[in-house]
Amino acid sequence: MYGMIASMKSPAQRRTVRSPARTPEPDRAASTRAVSARASPASAATRGLREALTPEAWIDAATDVLVSEGIDHVRVDVLARQLGVTRGSFYWHFRDREDLLRRVLQAWSERATLALTRRLASASSDPRERLRDMISLPHRGRAAERAARIELAIRAWARRDALAQQVLDEADRSRLAYHEEAFRALGLKPAQARARAFITYSAEIGESLLHHHGTARARADRQREIERLVLQAPVTRAEGTPPAPAPRAARSPSAARGSPRARSAG
User: Fold this and answer.
1) Fewest CB within 10 angstroms: 84, 164, 171, 192, which?
2) What CATH number does residue 83 fall under?
3) Shared domain check, 221 and 169
4) What pLDDT, on the 0 to 100 scale, is given for residue 47?
5) What value does the mean pLDDT of the chain take?
6) Coil, strand, or helix at residue 79?
7) Domain total for the chain?
8) Are 221 and 207 a contacting pair, CB within 8 Å?
9) Taking the model in full, what pTM does it have?
């Protein structure tokens, strides 16, 4: 049918009408790439830094400033200047300064408590060896010194900030629980295990903060003495043996002179 209609057209109508040649449209993607290529080297470098910086880079920079200058100096402008980027690049990763500070605390808790205890627990199943590992932590060179400086800064921050205090309290509880579990695995009763856990943990914190006190030999002597004291077997009474009498409180000379025996002697 379509052939019949075509044959009924006049020769003029049957002439092929050629449409004018159209100019091809430019490649928009190529144009975009060309514009990007003409961008200034400075903007390209800034974009590269922004893309290369991870949230962890900002968190590490904030931690360094916290240690060296204190929490008041952990500000977006200070960190951006230190990292060599604009303030705007900060907001690619964080909502605001408070968000960054929360992430700093989370990162510290993960590294200094959760990841640490997991690593020590997987290293040995012997509770005595686990405790020795914990006692040795303050003596492990530069890594231990940096960890101690960060912890000291966190504890100073916690004295004036509720969230930092909460995270610090959780870290202390977790570490104490890890020590207590190890002491209970050695056969100590719950009360004894809690007491030794606190004593051991306090010694570790003290050694971290006072690590430069004394010579290397003195530090090694302290480590051995702490191990000897806290890892010795608990003292137990034989069954049926009465407890030792409590020591009498010291009496002042004036109280002794005022006693009936003193008066009768006079």
Assistant:
1) 84
2) 1.10.10
3) yes
4) 53
5) 79
6) helix
7) 2
8) no
9) 0.69
